[in-house]
Design a protein that fits this description.
single chain, alpha/beta, eight-stranded mixed beta sheet
């Protein structure tokens, strides 16, 4: 009965979510959506009140025997739920409609042509480092300046900036006021940020954080400083587990946490809020506080915790649920979990409709719902095969993974194989690390105590880090899956089938037994097929590649596709001519996500395989484009990639490596697009030997590049220009002094590549020549001696 009572409010949250999503995706229609829903709510409310008033009154003609009777209780409850759903949905749509004029005014500014802008803004989100090395944060703009024109704003923006371009970076934090100089473009539909700002000319901190924001920022930085010097990867996890600060988590550990389904531990959510509120309640009760005082203490501590960790979507959802739960305690009415979750979700969507498009918010809500609805049936089913304590421990991560998997597919089309096991092993250590880390954070005024608590928190954090790295290193740790909505729907169906196979018992009606049997057969078929596909594409592939590779030239035929890897971050230089060979290379190397995609130019042999990575790219770095190039870039940005046009002098990071653009020159009319405007990169460090990637440059721009002084020889690896065509400048290769020359070329190609002229130039500089037409895939990495180790498909 209690579960049914809790589920009655689920349609309220679902309707509010759907309407909020529709309103933010089509904001011009939001006023009409709101008016329609308010009219519906008014009509239904009037009808219900009218029926209630007339209930029990005698009819004018029929007396007591002809009384009008109110509909049954079930109908009344349904009408109440519909009214609540309509009111919440109407309120969310109204919020969007009221905010739209200010948002439209900023969107209508001429910001799409790359014009320089200056924006004054207050930072509202924590500063995060992206895979390309840039910093990103959310802010609220108060002023936008374009030329001599100044516009008032008051809208949300998202800012990206290179760390080197931040003035007084130690003061850049939540609560600070900044001036961002660069270019801006309208945000994508459905996003909270009205503008996406690339602060190419820097961010200046006008005013550092003050008040509680300054205190919270100081506490977070103090915890980061307290773990400095502690050994291993566990030190970087302590601030993440305690207050959600992942700034010192290494890229390799971050990748391992994601691959092992443990990244949720560093995303502060309901578990953290429950710990904090529970501790506050327990301490207040131990001191003899009344119920009201205990609730007041819980609310105060919860508010302080949200400020400390910054109000991320999952934290806000968890805090709202905790606040509603405490209100229920104060009123003496214990609320059902799903009812609390539904009220929290609806309330938050009314206050912030743009949460409807937040994947973090969706993951948080779905994970909580799955634990409330699935954990007990799964535990009961598992207890038939394993001891009950183990069944209870397995049920929680299994329920979360089955429910959240379809949403995670939208980010990365792989299924973590060892996620449940990793959570089973790491889960018990998370509360200890969280509580001890939070205590260390709050004990900043006592450095000796803070150091001791940080060291204690390091122990369980190191266990979690070891679990993540071990699970991610196991064979077939992630199985490939369908991308996008079809993949999410398919995985949701698989999750439902697995859940039914476990939760349903052997008894019951014939239909129940048939459902269970069918589910078991489907699970067996899917498991066998998935393991077989994974063994062929992942396990066997990885076993034939050296695990230490840093540079991998894929054998994609007559085209370029070169992978670079440093500390778990991956870059791909061009995509080859076709989808299938690139997809096979990525699968073989175990690559699911491309942090940096470089499109040197837009010939088919360099962009033909884009479909293999579309929707899996973080940043795309590209050269000047024609119509074909612009369409290719648009297809990537539409699936979430951030595009940056490359020009000489631009630089960034990839894991522990640094990359520098050497060519083309910005605004060059001599080489506007095509081969001679290819993006040329210098990449080195973080395990990557000094590498020069020359795209398809011909001899003329090669000579100009050499004369520019941008080269930094000697290079361990040079990717030979234009597949070894005859149009080469010997002076460039003499200046680069390569130890190894990579020639990416297709067997028996129609161009005669590599040409004898090119091979002679490479031989004259004593470079070892490696060719994909003869050697197949080629892997390179730095050996302990400082030399470059190599591996080839043909010859090892």
């Amino acid at each position: 009965m209690r579960r049914r009572l809790g589920l009655r409010l689920v349609p309220v949250a679902a309707a509010c979510w759907a309407v909020a999503a529709a309103a933010i995706l089509a904001p011009a229609a939001s006023p009409w959506i709101a008016l329609t829903l308010w009219a519906l709510v008014l009509g239904l409310t009037t009808a219900v009140l009218s029926l209630s008033t007339r209930d029990g009154l005698p009819s004018r003609h029929g007396g007591a025997q002809a009384r009008f009777r109110m509909p049954r209780a079930a109908v009344r409850r349904t009408l109440v739920v519909v009214v609540l759903a309509g009111a919440a949905s109407a309120a969310a749509a109204s919020h969007v409609a009221l905010a739209q004029p200010a948002r439209t005014a900023v969107e209508d500014l001429a910001l799409t042509g790359g014009r320089a802008v200056a924006i004054r803004a207050d930072v509202t989100g924590k500063i995060e480092r992206r895979a390309d090395g840039s910093l990103a944060f959310d802010a609220v703009a108060s002023r936008v300046t374009i030329g001599d024109e100044i516009y008032g704003a008051g809208v949300e923006i998202a800012v990206r900036v290179s760390p080197a371009d931040v003035d007084r970076p130690w003061q850049l934090d939540v609560g600070s006021t900044v001036d961002a100089h660069g270019t801006a473009k309208p945000g994508r539909p459905g996003e909270r940020a009205v503008l996406e700002v690339w602060a190419s000319r820097g961010v200046e901190v006008v005013q550092p954080p003050g008040g509680v924001s300054a205190v919270a920022g100081g506490l977070r930085r103090g915890l980061v400083a307290a773990v400095h010097g502690l050994p291993g990867e566990g030190a970087g996890l302590v601030p993440g587990l305690a207050v959600g600060d992942t700034s010192i988590v290494s890229p390799s550990l971050d990748a391992a946490m994601k691959e092992s389904s443990l990244s949720h531990l560093t995303a502060v959510s309901g578990a953290n809020c429950a710990l904090v509120v529970g501790i506050a309640f327990a301490l207040a009760a131990a001191l003899g506080a009344s119920r009201r005082l205990r609730v007041a203490c819980g609310v105060a501590v919860l508010a302080g915790f949200v400020i400390l960790v910054t109000p991320e979507p999952s934290v806000v959802r968890a805090a709202a649920m905790a606040a509603i739960a405490m209100l229920a305690v104060l009123l003496g009415r214990a609320g059902a979990g799903m009812a609390l979750l539904s009220v929290a979700v609806a309330l938050l969507l009314v206050l912030d409709p743009w949460l409807a498009a937040s994947l973090g918010f969706a993951l948080s809500a779905v994970a909580t719902a799955s634990l409330l609805l699935w954990a007990r049936p799964l535990a009961t089913g598992l207890a038939r095969a394993v001891p009950r304590p183990l069944a209870l421990a397995l049920a929680v991560p299994l329920a979360a993974q089955l429910a959240c998997g379809p949403l995670l597919i939208l980010i990365e089309p792989t299924v973590p194989v060892y996620g449940v096991l990793a959570n089973l092993l790491a889960g018990p250590a998370a509360p200890a690390a969280t509580v001890l880390g939070l205590a260390a954070c709050l004990s900043a005024p006592l450095p000796w105590l803070q150091s001791g608590l940080a060291a204690l928190a390091w122990l369980p954090a190191s266990w979690i880090a070891a679990t993540a790295t071990t699970a991610s290193a196991l064979p077939a740790d992630a199985l490939p899956w369908l991308e996008g909505i079809p993949g999410a729907v398919a995985l949701a169906g698989v999750g439902l089938v697995i859940g039914l196979a476990i939760a349903l018992d052997r008894g019951g009606s014939r239909a129940r037994r048939a459902t269970r049997g069918t589910a078991i057969v489907v699970v067996a078929v899917l498991t066998g097929g998935g393991l077989g596909a994974g063994a062929l594409t992942r396990v066997a592939g990885r076993w034939t590649l050296p695990g230490t590779w840093a540079v991998l030239a894929c054998d994609v035929g007559q085209g370029d596709a070169v992978l670079l890897r440093s500390e778990g971050a991956v870059a791909l230089i061009d995509t080859g001519p076709d989808l299938e060979p690139l997809a096979a290379c990525l699968s073989r190397a175990g690559i699911d996500r491309i942090d940096l995609l470089v499109l040197t130019h837009y010939d088919l042999d360099h962009i033909g395989g884009l479909d293999a990575v579309r929707g899996r790219v973080g940043t795309v770095l590209h050269g000047p484009g024609d119509g074909t190039g612009q369409a290719a870039i648009a297809s990537l940005t539409a699936r979430g990639a951030r595009a940056t046009e490359a020009s000489a002098g631009l630089s960034g990071s990839l894991g522990g490596a640094r990359w520098r653009v050497l060519w083309p020159k910005a605004g060059s009319r001599a080489f506007p697009s095509g081969n001679d405007a290819s993006v040329v990169l210098d990449v080195r460090g973080g395990g990557i030997p000094p590498t020069l990637l020359l795209g398809d440059l011909s001899a003329s721009p090669q000579r100009l590049l050499t004369a520019s002084g941008a080269l930094d020889p000697p290079y361990a690896i040079v990717k030979t220009a234009h597949h070894g065509s005859a149009d080469q400048d010997a002076g460039l290769y003499a200046a680069a002094r390569p130890s190894i020359a990579l020639v990416t070329v297709g067997a028996d190609n129609d161009y005669g590549h590599p040409r004898d002229e090119a091979l002679k130039i490479l031989a004259d500089v004593d470079a070892k020549i490696l060719r994909t037409d003869r050697d197949g895939a080629i892997a390179l990495w730095s050996a302990e001696t400082g030399a470059v180790s190599m591996w080839r498909d043909s010859g090892g």
